[in-house]
Each structure stands twice: as structure tokens, then as C-alpha cells.
Automatic annotation (TrEMBL):
Source domain of life: Bacteria
Pfam families: Acyl-CoA_dh_1 (PF00441), Acyl-CoA_dh_M (PF02770), Acyl-CoA_dh_N (PF02771)
Coiled coil: none
Species this chain originates from: Streptomyces albus (strain ATCC 21838 / DSM 41398 / FERM P-419 / JCM 4703 / NBRC 107858)
Organism lineage: Bacteria, Bacillati, Actinomycetota, Actinomycetes, Kitasatosporales
Acyl-CoA oxidase/dehydrogenase middle domain residues: 123-217
Domain Acyl-CoA dehydrogenase/oxidase C-terminal as annotated: residue spans: 235-377
Listed name of the protein: Acyl-CoA dehydrogenase
Alphabetic keyword roster: FAD, Flavoprotein, Oxidoreductase
Family: Belongs to the acyl-CoA dehydrogenase family.
Amino acid sequence: MVSFAFSSEQEDFRRELIRFARAELAPRYTQRAARAEFPWDAHQQLAELGVLGIGLPEEYGGTGVPDPVSLGIATEALAYGDCNVAAAPVQVGLVAAQLAHEGSKEVAGEYVPRLIAGEIVAAIAVTEPSAGSDASHLRCEARPVEDGWRLSGEKIAITHATTAAIGLVYARHPGSSGYRGISCFLVPLDAKGVTRGAMPGMGALPLGWGTLSFDEVFIPADHLVGEEGNAFSGVMHHFDFSRPALGLLCLGAAQASVDEAVAWAQQREAFGRPIAAFQGVSFPLAEHATYLEAARWLCYRALWMRETGQPHTDLAAMCKWWPPQIAKDAIETSWVTHGNLGYSTELPLQQRYRDVASYLVADGSAAIQKRIIATRMFGKVAAQ
């Protein structure tokens, strides 16, 4: 029999995090979101809750067993209170998993426990001025030298660029082209030759988007992560996890907004009745509730397929283009339901709208995701 139920442990975990999100994160969400400063206090609270170690090896302080579904639960629940803080388990999961499973023992032992403990954050540096979703055009170069490499180039629109202690930097070997010859390196961002720059957007300010420039930065040999010259396939595999998780992040913020709109519609009166009595108000909210529910289970199905070892690249791409879009639309309807109050800075709706909008482009735009889906679709047809 097919079951869509979480385990009793997962359900207890979800309820605990929802309570935490409402009591601890939501009251200060807009205050944190207005500043381009990383929320270290809230981040440390996540570490104390064990959220940053989900699915990571026990030897480094993690829970031990890969658990993508529970990490998705955590991301959605936390986003109900603060979608910027909720990005932490996704980013830590991406970086720490790569280091733990593909990095040297020395490097993993130094940095993974600190990531899980919330002491530091890390960046993933792929995007460049001339290469966004098309990583085959990376120009950042890692030149082999004695005992390591020299890294030169520039990365843009990098999450945590202004805050991270370390970065997973993707660069190509001299003379290589396309996806071949790209390697991943662990780079301490206080190293000589590294320059940071801020690149703030209209939302997601605490995530510290920015630029990273590398001028002949020395990378020791043991800082290579994964197979030399074959890092592209590795990062794509990890993005198959992050895309459903980020979809759930957007849905968590949207659910909070719809819940607020429902409560407001029952309190606010017009023409002698609560505005919830008017179909022009209630029907759009009913439609968004339907879309959110459908998108939620799309994301959890993708994470379940990852957990059970099944191919899920196409589902992961679906989770990245559709949930952020319908989440943005649901938040827009929610603030319109509130009228001019919803548009004001007095309520968190306008802030959620701007923060969630960042995921329309972060980690690959809708057009890129649809290209992935279409490629898989037509490949399947050809193979039949």
C-alpha cells in the first residue's frame, strides 16, 4: 500500500521545528531580512537543534544515515518562520556532504564538524560573469604547480560570498574545454589572493550574495574535492538534492503567507460581512492551497526517490522551476488579500515576496530546469 505519511519520528521533528519557527524565527524575520548580515544567532540555534547535521556522517557530528526527506521537512518547517535562515541546512548539506564523501580525510576532519556545529558557513562557487547555468564555459583556471594548484578567475552571485570561511570553487585545467577538465577545490577564503565583493539583491540579504576573485591563489594538493577533471557530474548530482529542498523552502514561506491571509479574511469586514464570504477573496486562496499541496508532494517524492537510490534528475528540475513560481504567486495573492496593509513593511508578506523571488534564478532558472526536463523526456522517448 502506498503511504504519504511521515514516520512518527519525522512528524515529531516537523512539529518541533514548526513551533521553533513560529516562536523564535518569525518574530524577528523582517528585522533580520532587512540587513545584509548573516544571522549567526539563529544559525547557532539550528546547530543546537541538530538540523545542520542531518544525513552527515556520525564521525563528524552528524546523524549518520542519509535522510533527504527529513532535511526537506526541516527546510520547509523553518521557512515558515524565516526563509533566509531556512537555507542553512540546504547549504551545509551540499558542502559538508561533498567534503565528507569526496574530500581528503584531513580537510573533511577540519571543516565538516565546524559546519555541523554552526561555527562557519561555506560557499559554492560555480557561476561566473560569462558562465551561469552553462558551466561548460567556466573560465576560472586552476594551473598545476608543485604540491598543488594556482587558482585565478572570478565568481559572481555566490551565496555566502561575504560571510563564508571556505568555498567549494569549480575551476578548469589549462587547455580543457566543455565539461571535461573541471575540478572542485576547497579554498579557505581568507587565503592570500582572495578578494570578496558584495552583490546585494532586492531580497535574501542575509545570504550575503557577492563576488569572489582569485589571483594566483595557492591550493594544496589535499584540497582537491572529488575526481580531478570530473567535478561537473558531481555537483549536478548534489543539485538534484538541493533543488527539491529549495522548492520546499519557498513553499514553507508561501504556506505561512496563505495562513495569514486566511486569518485576515475572516477578521476583515466589507459591506457588513467578513471578506472571506466573497468568492473573489476565498477562491484564489483555495486555488493556491491546491497548488501548494501538489508542489509539496512533488518535492517530497523527489527526495524520497533520492533516499531510495532512484534516478530523480527530472523531478528535481521540476521542483526547482514550479514550486518557487507558485510560492511567489501565493504570497502575492496573500498580500493583495490584506490590501494596502499587506504591501506595507508592517507585515512580513512583502519581505517574503522579495526573498522567495530570488529562487526564480538561484540554482538555475525555470528555463534551465525545463531544458533538463525536456532532455530527459525526449531521451526516454528515443529509448523506447
